Each structure stands twice: as C-alpha cells, then as structure tokens.
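[job 4471] stage=fold_predict status=RUNNING
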Amino acid sequence: VPFELAWALIMAITKKIPAEDRSMHEGGWHHAVGIGLKGKTLGILGLGSLGTEVAKIGIAFDMSVIAWSENLTAERAADVGVTRVEKDELFAQSDVLSIHLLLSERTTGIVGAQELAKMKPTAYLINTARGPIVDEPALIKALQEKKIAGAALDVFDVEPLPADHPFRKLDNTVLTGHTGYTVQELYPFAYGQAVEDIAGWLKGDPVRVLNAPDKA
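[job 4471] inference complete, writing structure tokens
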C-alpha cells in the first residue's frame, strides 16, 4: 500500500533505521542520531487519495501539515486538516516532503534544481509516486553536496535501478525497489482474478469484459 510505504520510508530515514540496523548486525550499538517528528512540518505534494492518507498520519504525529498541487484549493486542504501553501512555500517550509502526484507531461520534472534549492539543508524528500516527477540528476547533485539531509525513494527513472547508479553509493538515501504496491494480501486477490478471467474465457463466459465499440 503506497501510503503505508511512504510512512515506512519517512520513519526509516528520519530515525536512521538502516544505519542502526547495519550497526547492530555488525556487532555495534547506538550509531546515529535521528530527528523527532512532533512539531515538524510535513509537506504533501499532491493531496489526492494517497496524499490525504499520508497527511492524516502526519496529523496524528502532531506535525504541521501543508500541501500544494496545481488544482488544490484552500477549502479542499482544510477538509483534510491541512494548510494549502504556494509551491515555493511547500519546498521552503517542509522538514519532510512526500510526493503523491500522478506522472504526466505536466508533472514530469516538477521537482527540479530550483525546487530542491529552496529546501532546508535538514529536510528529507520522500518519493513513492513515480521517478520522473523528480529531476534525478538534480536530486543526485543535491544529495552529493548535502544540500538536503536525505531522500527515501521507491521509484526511479530507470527500473530496476542499475547496479552502478549513484543513488546506491550515497549514505543519505534509503532505497526500495518499487515495492509500494507489493503486499501479501495483493497476490491472492490479483492472481485469483486472473484465474477467474482465464476460466471464464475457456468456458465461453468471460468476466470483467471491457466494452468497446464494434469494429466496422
């Protein structure tokens, strides 16, 4: 479930869980210092159904939650308990910025060098939406130069992520391999439907038929 993974990544990168886990498995102890989320600002880029679920959890953590998207109204944001801000404010104010936009021609590269430059050096970027929404070279540069504190990413321009990709070499990233939709509960449901579709077709009684105009 993508909004659950977004929060898993937020917790992992802000609490330094991968570094702590590595230290413990290597025989070490307390290794890194995370940040508290209470009172911090959570920015939501795209307050649709997934962004709304992420915002609700941020509110439960007693975070200040702000949001922006091109068509978001102040009234819609207020209905969720969120404050609508302008795009520049979203990037400048967020301590954690989570992306929940659909990929389109309009949103491709919407998070670029200019937007990343507005972020706090202590801020984290979370992307569980689609890789090309973020200008990947600009993000790599920002992470290498420590212009932001880190990024937690489930999606990339090229998937699977190449073995020699710069993201893999950075110590301020948490990476997962497009796993937002992958939960155990999905497989019986999805493959069960596939079996039903095939059985229906073999019996001459197809199910879930997509209606289309007759071809001349």
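[job 4471] summary: Residues 199 and 205 are 8 Å apart (CA to CA).
[job 4471] exit 0
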